[in-house]
Amino acid sequence: ETGVTQSPTHLIKTRGQQVTLRCSSQSGHNTVSWYQQALGQGPQFIFQYYREEENGRGNFPPRFSGLQFPNYSSELNVNALELDDSALYLCASSAPPGTGSNEQFFGPGTRLTVL
Amino acid sequence: QQQVKQSPQSLIVQKGGISIINCAYENTAFDYFPWYQQFPGKGPALLIAIRPDVSEKKEGRFTISFNKSAKQFSLHIMDSQPGDSATYFCAATIQGGSEKLVFGKGTKLTVNP
């Protein structure tokens, strides 16, 4: 069974730039959620993708957007980067919502630094 | 608004001791409460979870105690080991929708040998 993988591991960008982070879900999982974890904080829900559509969104501005592909992999795009966007971005995959299987399996994350 | 409050922020225990981490929630619609363990450089991993129809769940050295009326739940780690040194997060979610996890701020546990 293949776990959740994310790329890249680390990324350094400057303010105003755009970034794309990638996630491959665990085998058999068709639901992907993205979280932002600031240093010393718990992860915060950004959004979830199911069947290639956004299925729930947290309190993040529209410059945070995403995609899910037919193979269930996903991208997180952040435009107009701000210093406060520096964080660990976590991807989690899970069985479809409402199936009673609640466990979300997290990847190792992408550490984004905005200078 | 912080929906899940976690304490303490950090905890140091001796090997063999009991580690206790507490969480309180505000949203009574939450119906699934997992605990995650995170090691440096890794993503969180599910440790143990509970639903509000039970007051306690035990898996090995890890126990969740749940008090629905007080809207509180806690993680007890018995016979704590140096390998348990990690950051622990409580979380809560509402099943059936996006099932987004609402996390506490985390507790950094250090178990001294």
Can you give keywords for this protein?
heterodimer; A: 115 residues; mainly beta; seven-stranded mixed sheet; four-stranded antiparallel sheet; 0% helix; B: 113 residues; six-stranded mixed sheet; five-stranded antiparallel sheet; 11 strands; 52% strand; globular
Give a written overview of the molecule.
The complex is a heterodimer of chains A (about 120) and B (about 110). With about 120 residues, chain A is mainly beta. Chain A has strands at about 5, 10-15, 20-25, 30-35, 45-50, 55, 65-70, 75-80, 85-95, 105, 110-115. In chain A, strands 2, 4, 5, 6, 9, 10 and 11 form a seven-stranded mixed sheet that branches. Chain A has a four-stranded antiparallel sheet with strand order 1-3-8-7, with no helix packed on it. In chain A, a hairpin with a 5-residue loop joins strand 7 (about 65-70) and strand 8. Chain A is globular and about 40 Å long. In chain B, a hairpin with a 2-residue loop joins strand 6 (about 55-60) and strand 7. Chain B is mainly β and about 110 residues long. In chain B, the strands form two sheets. In chain B, strands 2, 4, 5, 9, 10 and 11 form a six-stranded mixed sheet that branches. In chain B, strands 1-3-8-7-6 form a five-stranded antiparallel sheet, with no helix packed on it. Chain B has no helices and eleven strands. In chain B, about 0% of the residues lie in helices and about 50% in strands. The interface between A and B is medium-sized, with 27 and 27 residues.
